[in-house]
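The records we work with from here on pair a chain with its fold. These numbers are not coordinates but entries in a learned vocabulary of local backbone shapes. To see the layout at work, look at the sequence and tokens printed below.

. . .
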Amino acid sequence: MSQRKIVELQTLGNRDNCQHSPIKKRLKKNRNCKKNSITGKGESRPNCRLATACRVAEDQGLSTRMSESKIISVLRKPMTHVSAEADSLKYKLIYPVCGFILEIALKPIVHREFGTVVWDAALGLCQYFEEQKMDFSQKKVIELGAGTGILSILTVLLGGDVTITDNPQLLQQIQLNVSANIPSSMKSRVKIRALSWGLDQTQFPSDYDYILGGDIVYNYSSLPLILETLQHLCNESTVIYFASTMSISRELITSGYRTLFQYFDSDLVCRYENADVNLYRMTKKKSQAQG
């Protein structure tokens, strides 16, 4: 592993040639954009790293196809075994999406998996933005729990003025990925800041056009903190896009969204069956906005 760089090719396709993307075909074939279901019924979620792992490339630039069992054996190794040095990024994920080629490097973080994986929900939002031909020009956006930063990076490239937030220990990784993917002419539209839900959201304004989050509704204890944070960051015109991989914990996530739906008008705008990902669009209820 010390001599190997894992390169994950997530062929999401682009706007001009997306019909040739096998991942695009997989998602589109099983796509179900209903508005009246919270969870729907989907297949069991595959290992989130295995689900999108397609190829292993050697440091010398030579690539070798691997069997599924070999991919599992490589990707299940602890992240701390991948990197020989604490500050090195030993594998890089490649994502063609919306006409851009995003290179997302992952840094092992001891005892934490959050932020060391590109989660299916973030990829689902990227896919949705591509399908909807989203344009964030002159829009103010904030992402909660950005992890690797892939969703925020795409949003910047699509014109947004984006604040990327997560725990302090993940900010260096986000900064490296921003530096690798965002041209210098666009970097004035990027802010990278630590945000602890329910604690320091008041240090941020309440004038965002969009709030994004992928796989952040994942436990009961964080839900009141997310709600408190959203209530501060939102105004009456803010649009929230949240996505969740339901099979992480279907009952918990469903319960979490039901709580959020008490405060926000919501639609299930898209569902990717194979990945078991639901995408929700939410806006603050009028009674909450007036309060």
The chain has one domain: 4-290. The mean pLDDT is 75. The first helix runs from residue 22 to 29.
